[in-house]
Write a structure and sequence with these properties.
By secondary structure, this protein is mainly beta. The protein has one domain. The protein has 2 helices and 10 strands, in the order H-E-E-E-E-E-E-E-E-H-E-E. The longest helix has 14 residues. The chain starts with a helix and ends in a 5-residue tail after the last strand.
């Protein structure tokens, strides 16, 4: 009798359209316009708009650091489906922070998903956010320099 109940539950679950959890996949970024091979390129991927663009307050943000090359590739693995934004920093002196001139102007390169533009400060999350599904995804982000 318990086998019949178990089989009915399994069949009912399948018929109800309940899907298995979505699988994580990769987001690969090709970084263009890197002005030098000094230092590293730091990247963070976040779901939290209040943590964008630096990701410091997001314990679940994915972070990747790669050597700066003329055409750097960055790969985030294990990315679940959802809405995300990516921020890049060309940390030319590899000191772990975005250096600034006169306290405001970035001295190092930066870039954002969807090529979100910088105006009077970093772009808003809504300008950089993109949807990621279950398939691997590739995008290009152009590094920009103010100085």
């Amino acid at each position: 009798m318990s086998r019949i109940i178990a089989a009915s539950l399994i069949a009912g679950t399948a018929a109800s359209g309940m899907a298995a959890p979505a699988q994580a996949s990769e987001v690969e970024i090709s970084v263009t316009n890197i002005r030098s091979t000094k230092g590293v390129v730091r990247a963070c991927l976040t779901k939290q708009k209040q943590s964008f663009p630096n990701c410091r307050k997001d314990p679940n943000a994915l972070r990747v650091v790669v050597p700066a090359t003329k055409n750097a590739k960055i790969r985030f693995t294990g990315v679940a489906p959802g809405s995300y934004a990516i921020a890049l920093l060309h940390d030319e002196n590899d000191n772990g922070k975005a250096d600034r001139a006169l306290g405001m102007m970035p001295k190092e390169g930066f870039g954002f998903s969807r090529d979100a533009k910088v105006r009077m400060g970093p772009p808003k999350y809504k300008d950089a956010v993109f949807e990621h599904g279950t398939a691997n995804q590739a995008m290009t982000i152009k590094m920009r320099y103010m100085l």
